[in-house]
Every structure is written in structure tokens, then in C-alpha cells.
Amino acid sequence: MKKQIELHEKKVEYTLKVSKRARTMRLAMYGGGDFVVTVPRFVGEQVVEQFIIRNAKWVLGKLEYFKNIPPRVLPKNNKLEFARHKGSALVLAERKMAHFNEIYQFTWGKVTIRNQKTRWGSCSKKGNINFNYKIALLPEHLTDYIIVHELCHLGEFNHSQKFWDLVERTMPNYREFRKELKGKGFGFF
Fold it and tell me: Which of 2, 7, 39, 83 is the most buried (most CB within 10 A)?
């Protein structure tokens, strides 16, 4: 549901999502400056507005940041795009994982391609790895970074220095690639 609130004499539009699964209120800013507030179903509108006002500095800062970002390069999540690219994303992921794993020598479970809204990939404690179908639409160096990132979670299931050392073994420029994913409209925010 679309809403508006005034923050420091500026009208800000946001989407209010009421979620059965949400336990806390959450603010999110997505590529293109879409501002979404997710709340548990028992939270009233006045509480939501107070929460946004308390976080006005963050909201206005993100909106300002997104003014300088070009429009999204990747298509919005939809079933047709997902169906079109799912197969090629799986082939790509499996090929790249095998290539980089010649160095790491990790073992994984299932590799799955998903239509995720907020993640490029994820790794479960059981060693199953998920990738967003949009990895097939990225420049190769960014796809490589995402593959290596998830692969390295098989060795370090966190984002500690040991994890980043693993990533750096095959991606010495990983910091630049992370920045590029976030800064060129590719990222999930």
C-alpha cells in the first residue's frame, strides 16, 4: 500500500508491507529509490510513522544517494524473466563453481537458482547454495565474484577476516566488485 509522510519539510513516498512473518519493523531502500517499510501485522499506522520519523536522517540520506544512481540496469523480478534465464544461470553457476573449486576443494550439496528480491546468493549450513537468476545477466567479473563469495561460505560460514582472505585468494579485487554491484544499479539495498 502506497503512503506518504513528511520528513523535514519534504514529502516522502513509501510502500507499507504488512507481513505475517515479520517480527520487527524494517526500512529498506531498493535500487531506483523505492522505499519500503515492512511491519508485523499488529503494528499500527501511528507507530509506523513514528518509526520512520526516528529514522528520518537515514531515509533522507538514502533517497539523496539514489538520486545520483542511474536507473536499474537489470530487469525487475518477474516470472517470465526468471523462466527465461533460470536454465542458463544454473549452467553458468555450476561451471563457474567447478572452475573456482579447483583452488578451494570444497564440497557442496544442491545448487538452486531462485527469483530472489534482495540477494545475489546464499549458502546453507548443509552446503546447499542458491543463486539469483540475474547472475546470468551480469558482467562476467561480477558473476565470478558472487560465485566465489558463496563458494567461500563453504569454508567460513560468516564474514570474518578468514572468509575475506578466502575470497581474496581468487578475487584480489573483490572490494571493487562489491562496490560496483552496489553502485551501478546492480545491487540489492
Answer: 39
Contact between 5 and 53 under an 8 Å Cβ cutoff? The reply is yes
pTM beyond 0.70: no
Here the cell at position 81 is 524473466
Domains of the chain and CATH, by start: 2-67 (no CATH), 79-183 (3.30.2010.10)
User: Is residue 135 a contact partner of residue 146, using CB atoms and an 8 Å limit?
Assistant: yes
Let me know the angle formed at the C-alpha of 116 by 110 and 121, rounded to the nearest 5 degrees: 50
Q: Which of 39-43, 94-98, 100-104 has the lowest mean pLDDT?
A: 39-43
Determine the residue type at 87. G
Grid coordinates representing 2 are 502506497
Strands 10-19 and 34-40: parallel
